[in-house]
Automatic annotation (TrEMBL):
The keyword Acetylation does not apply. One of its GO terms (molecular function) is CoA-ligase activity. Residues 30-418 form the AMP-dependent synthetase/ligase domain. This is AMP-dependent synthetase/ligase domain-containing protein.
Length: 537
């Protein structure tokens, strides 16, 4: 059995296995930050500097306006927009007004918005009204509302992404990011923030109150409390030793908990400054890293791959970068090596650190140490995170190197799914029982196998797709791969692999198949292998 009691034996120097968490809400931490460092930079956004006092004052004004719109404690407010000052101000403003942010990907489709609106019944919605690369960020929500009826959301508030910038900077940024503003027949965000009545009211909140409902790709709403979010932000910032001296690149969407925790909330608890990008564009990211002296980079494999092949990086000095974290777990070795080589050629010498988590546990549960990494591992459990590997049928704890499902208990674990009280995934001990396949080695390091939905039983043996991807990614000509479950003509389930080849390499499907035969048991060899230009997201 692996839990926090023996995982601590393998902790590297630096991180503690248990932390002390404040009995405070997110808005209380913001107020505390203002009392300590009011004029310290909270974040920069395309040249605009926002300090902690600005963020506190403007979010308070927004809260007053929300209360003037008769928002009550516990009312839900849908929040869906790219990274921006407006998101941060709105997020804290909703909390100060007693509301609950309901975060959704700003690229969500109409059906996703429709389901969420039906389920959480938001009193208000705050969205971006812009067109991004000709895609209307408001249209999916508008379609959902037209189907459900305008009365389904009492107040709709829209902002234009660059309206907080000076006119010249608006034009430049709009051109760079291919974003066009569009006027909507809705309440204007700026008016609610900058023309709010001077009538501040205090709404009492506790650490056990809901601070966020986060929607997943499977349309489940995850309930996260102030305690959940603050704990995970502290676990993350402590593990990676974030301080006020750091500058974090905030390019992962705030509307995802991984983006929110690794950037905005880690900044709140550590004092680090953010350099905020509304969208991830590799050229703009490397320019920003150099200009703002970014030292900490949370990223996805796709982002790191784009940076690795970015021509602009060759012109930039990226020596300020001290840490880079892959927030989705294991990264293909070829992409990791390519990024680290790019960085070395641009003045840096950073190794990518892999970490992992799931929305039901806020964002993060495991991480490798900068000084004690293991290839292919998602690392050790974070402080105060009790992790057990269970037999999927009996739910009995398993020993070292035995494959089972992940069970988690810790301060970051969710309160439950919204509106699904009868189907909460907890056992009698309060552990979150997942469908994620894992195992751990003799040093307490965990390895991801994938979800049960991504596995198949052949000849009585469970085959995990992640294991096969790991083998394919180790091929010297392979950049990355994806293994899925498909059906043959008879309707039988089978393994299908999609493989991306490194630039300049030549390899055939038969070559890949022959390689698999030397590395995998017969039942684990994919029945179909396709060489593709890129993987589907």
């Amino acid at each position: 059995m692996s839990d926090i009691k023996n995982s601590q034996n393998f902790y590297p120097q630096g991180p503690k296995y248990s932390l002390s968490y404040p009995n405070a809400t997110l808005q209380a931490l913001l107020e505390r930050k203002v009392s300590q460092n009011p004029k310290t930079k909270a974040f920069s956004f395309l040249g605009l500097i926002v300090d902690w006092l600005d963020l506190d004052r403007l979010s308070t004004s927004f809260a007053v306006s929300l209360n003037e719109l008769r928002l009550k404690k516990g009312d839900r407010v849908l929040l869906s927009m790219p990274n921006s000052p407006q998101f941060a101000i709105s997020f804290f403003g909703i909390l100060k007004a007693g509301g609950i942010p309901v975060c959704m990907d700003f690229l969500s489709g109409a059906e996703t918005f429709e389901k969420a609106i039906k389920e959480v019944q938001p009193y208000a919605a705050i969205l971006c009204g812009d067109l991004v690369e000709e895609r209307d960020l408001y249209s999916a929500f508008e379609s959902a509302i037209s189907k459900l009826g305008k009365a389904s959301v009492a107040h709709v508030i829209t902002t234009n992404l660059f309206e907080v910038l000076p006119p010249i900077q608006q034009a430049l940024s709009g051109s760079t990011f291919k974003i066009k503003s569009k006027k909507r027949e809705t309440l204007g965000w700026s008016k609610l923030v900058f023309e709010a009545p001077n009538d501040e009211k205090s709404v009492e909140s506790t650490v056990s109150d809901i601070a966020l409902i986060q929607y997943k790709s499977d349309n489940k709403g995850v309930i996260l409390t102030h305690k959940n979010l603050i704990s995970n932000a502290m676990q993350f910032s402590h593990w990676f030793a974030l301080t006020q001296a750091e500058v974090i690149l905030a390019a992962i969407p705030f509307t995802s908990t991984r983006g929110l925790v690794s950037t905005l909330l880690s900044s709140l608890v550590s004092g680090a400054a953010l350099s905020v990008l509304p969208l991830f564009i590799a050229d703009e990211a490397v320019k920003t890293i150099e200009k703002d002296s970014v030292s900490f980079l949370p990223a996805t494999p796709r982002m790191l791959d784009s940076l690795a092949s970015c021509e602009e990086a060759k012109k930039r000095n990226l020596s300020s970068l001290k840490s880079c974290v892959c927030i989705t777990g294991e990264i293909p070795p070829a992409i990791k090596a390519s990024f680290e080589n790019m960085l070395k050629n641009s003045g840096g010498s950073v190794k990518i650190i892999e970490c992992y988590g799931l929305i039901e546990a806020c964002a993060f549960t495991h991480a490798n140490s900068p000084n004690a990494q293991k290839t292919g591992s998602i690392g050790l459990p974070l402080p105060d995170t009790e992790v057990t590997v269970l037999d999927q049928d009996t739910l009995r704890p398993l020993e070292v190197n035995k494959e089972g499902i992940l069970a988690i208990k810790g301060p970051q674990v969710m309160a439950g799914y919204f509106g699904q009280q009868a189907t909460q995934p907890f056992d009698n001990e309060g552990r979150l029982i997942t469908t994620i396949g894992v195992y751990f080695d003799q040093d307490g390091y965990f390895y991801l196998l994938g979800s049960l939905e991504e596995s198949i039983v052949i000849n009585g043996k469970r085959i995990w797709t992640r294991e096969i991807e790991r083998v394919l990614n180790a091929h010297p000509a392979v950049k990355e791969s994806s293994v899925t479950i498909s059906q043959d003509k008879k309707g039988e389930k089978q393994l299908k692999a999609s493989v991306v080849i490194k630039p300049g390499e030549k390899v055939s499907v038969q070559d890949i198949l022959n390689y698999c035969k030397t590395k995998l048991a017969p039942e684990k060899i994919p029945k179909q292998i396709d060489i593709v230009r890129e993987l589907k997201l």
